[in-house]
Structure prediction request, 399 residues.
Amino acid sequence: MNPLLRSLQPYPFQKLSHLLEGITANTALTPINLHIGEPKHETPAFILTELGNKLDGIASYPTTLGSKWLRASIATWLVQRYQLTAIDSETEIIPVNGSREALFAFAQTVIDSKTAEQPIVVCSNPFYQIYECAALLAGAKPYFINAFAEHDFALDYEQLPQAIWARTQLIYVCSPNNPTGRVMTLDEWQQLFELSDRYGFVIASDECYSEIYFDEQNPPLGGLQAAQQLGRSKFTRLVVFTSLSKRSNVPGLRSGFVAGDSSILKDFLLYRTYHGSAMNPAVQAASTIAWSDEQHVIENRRIYHEKFKDALAILNGCLPAKMPDAGFYLWVRTPINDQDFTQMLYRDYNVIVLPGSYLGREAHGFNPGENFVRIALVAPLAECSQAMQRIKECISQIH
Ligand SMILES: Cc1ncc(COP(=O)(O)O)c(C=O)c1O
Prediction:
């Protein structure tokens, strides 16, 4: 067996099952699950119809690069969404089977583990767990930058010693961030691009929550957009990862794309061709029309916004919960240890949330996820509302 597999931690949901094992939940109350970031709003009918209509596509093998219609639809979306002057749908876009597999596979393409010193992959802490595993299995060492509430969860790139940057081959950034909800600013992008220019590392920008925001006039800044605004016309050393899962409520469709630096994508395409990660033709057809409709996404955002307003009104004064910049998570400090809080909430109120410490690692003497929980506002409004009332009651038991 590959010995590197032994360096992987159990997935957070496995840790959570273990934490709740043997605890009997209060069955007088209906269970409410807010621990998984799985969209629960209705999948738009036009996507399902197109998927059904194009099932005959499975009679042939798809190409790894995907259909030109899908790539053209993605290119049009990118240009409109980020006011790009242009993006080449032949060389700067590849469809992927959800951003998760691509985030993982990307490290296998980018990392050169045959260097004198072990390569480093930098990522924020807490973080989406795929980055660490991708780094480890590519033979790299993860290096974490802690994100603190006191600094509004902004990453302080200055804290990394020069010797670490010199070994860094890849950085994963996540904006809008899971779990903190923070969106990177143009200044932060500028700093990151300057570091990438100086040290030569690749930037993987996970933007799978980019379409879940609350001000229609102010969508989150994306990596490609930041690059263009800063005069980087060729997206040098930058690849963004985008997904339909959250935007269109199709987590089971497994559809997303990567876009950016064409020379990196050329190698990524080669890797993917051998890996065998072409997208199902019916999924390609459904994705093509999903990227060309915004109406359903506007409605999706409206529902999330309503849930956040409701949740924050209920939690006001009992938990220090804040509206995130974007995304569908509340990332909130708990009055007691996050694991104890999660157990209590489950036992007494039949609500499941995710302990923040499971999304972080101890780094620089500290796990910044400790004493936080992640609450995914994915359930319907009434259910989320009920969960918040129960959380409020739970807190009142503690004080
Ligand atoms: C930060 C982040 N990136 C990527 C993904 C993967 O999404 P998908 O593979 O459905 O595109 C998720 C899923 O929850 C996520 O939270």
User: Anything to note?
Assistant: Residues 295-315 form the longest helix (21 residues). The chain has two domains: 3-42+296-398, 45-293.
